[in-house]
Amino acid sequence: PTVPKLAYTSSHYKSSLPTLAISGVSLGLHFSAWVWSISHTTLAHSLLCVSMHPIVLNLVGHFRHRFRGGPRPRVMETAGTWVGILGCCIMLLDVTSGSSDASATSDPDAVTSPTLIGDFVAFLGALAMSVYLLCGESVRRPPPGFPSPPPIPLWLYAFPVTLVASVTCLSLALLSRPSSISLYDPLDLGSSALGFASPAYAPMCLYLGGASGVGGHTLINTLLAHLTPTVVGTSLLAEPVIGGVIGFLAGVQGVPGGWTWGGGAGL
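Structure tokens predicted for EamA domain-containing protein (267 residues):
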């Protein structure tokens, strides 16, 4: 028999608020960790490590199957996870070898050598992204066969989660430089809490918020109502490829080292 669809009520929304808060904080941690890692490792390594959430989600899937009776991840998904872990280990050989990506980098401020701390923080961003996707699944795609709770409407999910994420990012920025950050200083935008609103940064921030934020993450949340987090996360693996090419063309990413090429292909 067809399971009847229930109307979404205020009581359903109130019960989902803790999940929305965790989702928003996780998204903010994901953004903050990734942005920090860009300044401490190469763009290629940052993008590859922050995109490791399919590996994390596969491991979570095995945990849920073992202890909560969830569906077991498919054999090929698990095989791909181990290939990805091997690829990550191979990538780290570029860190130990001290290879440099400076050959095609025109930006003097760009990081030209991968670092362990930068890669690790980017991976923390992948962990946060995994929590964000799992939270989205829990409220946007309830278990099949259960009439309650109904899936939360997209706009009721996206707006508070994005708001909490922005507050989380701003709070971490203030905590990172508590003595030198001002509200707005046109002569020192890098240390201004509202520096993104300046004419120099506003167009780029509007693009990041509108195209990447609203367009990208709203699409992700839309897909979570129909697909598993593993499938959605795997589709995001195009980001390191496209982002690496854009970074190379923009002059902020040189030609990666050999271990990064080999490990990145596996990842």
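Residues 185-223 form one domain.
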